[in-house]
Each structure stands twice: as structure tokens, then as C-alpha cells.
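Whiteboard transcription, Tuesday session. T.W. wrote the C-alpha cells on the left side:
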């Protein structure tokens, strides 16, 4: 079985982003970029499926600017066999990415697509769901355990107050949650090996996909800064303030 893993290049999770002065978005010039953390978990899971003999080939896909090649090389250093870059300088919204992935799924015919549950830059949490809908495939989101059993896959999901276990017929779409696994460290020999793995570049046009944005960002703003606190002289004043000012008791 072939597994397709979409990996997004995002601002590194350690970076504190700054809103642009014109409020059109955040400033990503000269900012460290990395693979979306949930996508690292997706690649790791695909590699584990391959190690268990449930997957035969892992194809990593990234949609975006030329530098997404670095993200694909990281995926290949973790263990993906090859990469496909869908190169575009346009803003790619989740629906556009889902359509690009659908076109690649039609070409590659994977048995499983494993995505992150959300990209930490836009926090959309949409692409996997939209892809499953476009393909008319079963989907299991927020997976914390994945087990391929013949022509089905069993997925455990963390839901409010417990765990839900689903059995899906393959081919299927899965999105990863934080506790699915802990991605392995990328070693230098594997980084070197990844440089030799095949990386193809295609474009939205060559896939016949219109990636024109459907949503318009009206404004991006910093969260309001926190007001200064006060020191209360005694418990009675604290209770009075909680009752009459904050109105929380
Ligand atoms: P989102 O719906 O934007 O929160 O993204 C959910 C998941 O879709 C990500 O974790 C990736 O696996 C995948 N994805 C989103 N955008 C891209 C992209 N530009 N290239 C590759 N994969 C993407």
C-alpha cells in the first residue's frame, strides 16, 4: 500500500510571530520555517506503518513556494521514499490544497492519506476533511492510534471524555493528533540519504487545479494586551472584588 503524506512548511513553533503594521497578516520575512509539527507526526506514523509491513511506499507532498523542498527533504530524512512539490507562489487556502491533493491522489492512487489535524500557522483544521469529501473516502480525524488490518484501518480518536475507535474501509483519509507518536530525530546520515531521494515538481496548472483564494482576510490583529493586576490587602477585599467587580463568585 502506498501512503501519501501532505507536509506543510510553516513558521517554526518556537517563533513568536509579529503582526504586519498594515494588519494584512503576520510578518514571515527572515523567520525560521519548519515542517508543521502534526505533519511530522504523520510522516512518522507512515514510516512506522512501513516498518510494520503495512505500507510499501511513502510519498510526501508539499504545496507552496520553492523552499517547501526543504520540508520535503526533512520528510524524506524521517523516512518518506520520495517527494512531490506542487510549486506555487500564490496564497494556498485549504480548499485549494485539498483540490491539489485530490489531483495527486488520482495520479498516485494511495491506499491511505495521512495529514496533520491542523497547520499551526492558520489553525484551519480543514484540509483533511475537505480532501476526504472531494475523494468521497472515509475519514478519521485527530487519530491517537492507527492500525492497518487487511483492507481496513482501525483508528482511535481522542474525543471529549474518552476514546472513540473507528474502523474504516481503505482507501481512507486520517488526520493526526499530538499523542499519536513521538517523531524520531532526524540523523545526519538520513539527511544525506534524503538528498538522493527523488523529488518531482509539478504546478497547480499541470494538475488542472484553480487555486484562486475563496476567502478574504479582512484584518489580523494582536490579542489585546493584559491589564495590570492589583495587590489586595486582605482576603475580605479579594472576595469583595471577585463578587462585585469581576462578578465571578
Ligand atoms: P489545515 O487544514 O490548513 O489546518 O491543514 C491540515 C493539514 O493539511 C496539514 O497538517 C497538512 O498535513 C495539510 N496541508 C495543509 N496545507 C498544506 C500545504 N500547503 N502543503 C501540504 N500539506 C498541507
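and on the right, the sequence the group agreed on:
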Amino acid at each position: 500500500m502506498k501512503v501519501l503524506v501532505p507536509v506543510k512548511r510553516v513558521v517554526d513553533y518556537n517563533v513568536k510571530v509579529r503582526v504586519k503594521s498594515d494588519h494584512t497578516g503576520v510578518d514571515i520575512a527572515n523567520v525560521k520555517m519548519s515542517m508543521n509539527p502534526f505533519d511530522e507526526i504523520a510522516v512518522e506514523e507512515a514510516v512506522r506503518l512501513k516498518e510494520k509491513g503495512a505500507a510499501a511506499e511513502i510519498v510526501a507532498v508539499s504545496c507552496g513556494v520553492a523552499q517547501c523542498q526543504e520540508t520535503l527533504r526533512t520528510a524524506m530524512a524521517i523516512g518518506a521514499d520520495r517527494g512531490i512539490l506542487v510549486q506555487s507562489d500564490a496564497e494556498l487556502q485549504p480548499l485549494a490544497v485539498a483540490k491539489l491533493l485530490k489531483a495527486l491522489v488520482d495520479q498516485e492512487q494511495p491506499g491511505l492519506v495521512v495529514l496533520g489535524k491542523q497547520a499551526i500557522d492558520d489553525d484551519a483544521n480543514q484540509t483533511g476533511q475537505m480532501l476526504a469529501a472531494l475523494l468521497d473516502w472515509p475519514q478519521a480525524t485527530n487519530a491517537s492510534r492507527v492500525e492497518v488490518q487487511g483492507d481496513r484501518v482501525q483508528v482511535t480518536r481522542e474525543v471529549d471524555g474518552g476514546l472513540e475507535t473507528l474502523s474504516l474501509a481503505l482507501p481512507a483519509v486520517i488526520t493526526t493528533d499530538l499523542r499519536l507518536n513521538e517523531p524520531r530525530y532526524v540523523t545526519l546520515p538520513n539527511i544525506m540519504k534524503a538528498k538522493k531521494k527523488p523529488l518531482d515538481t509539478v504546478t497547480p496548472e499541470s494538475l488542472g487545479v484553480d487555486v484562486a483564494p475563496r476567502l478574504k482576510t479582512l484584518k489580523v490583529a494582536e490579542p489585546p494586551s493584559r491589564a495590570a493586576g492589583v495587590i489586595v490587602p486582605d482576603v475580605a477585599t479579594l472576595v469583595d472584588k471577585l463578587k462585585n467587580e469581576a462578578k465571578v463568585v
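Someone added at the bottom: Helices lie at 37-51, 68-78, 94-108, 127-135, 188-194, 235-244.
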